[in-house]
Specification:
Elements: H1 2-25, H2 29-32
Length: 42
């Protein structure tokens, strides 16, 4: 039973780290797919 709890805790920790990494790496589409000659929005 102890091994199961360690595995669950490890999965939660990995998920939290993954969310933090993806939040810092990903960009909104209006920032990621624009160049100097493109205007998006109003």
């Amino acid at each position: 039973m102890r091994t199961f709890f360690i595995a669950c805790a490890t999965a939660i920790i990995i998920a939290v780290i993954g969310v933090a990494v993806l939040e810092s790496v990903q960009q909104p589409s209006d920032k990621a797919f624009t160049t100097t000659g493109v205007r998006l929005g109003s």
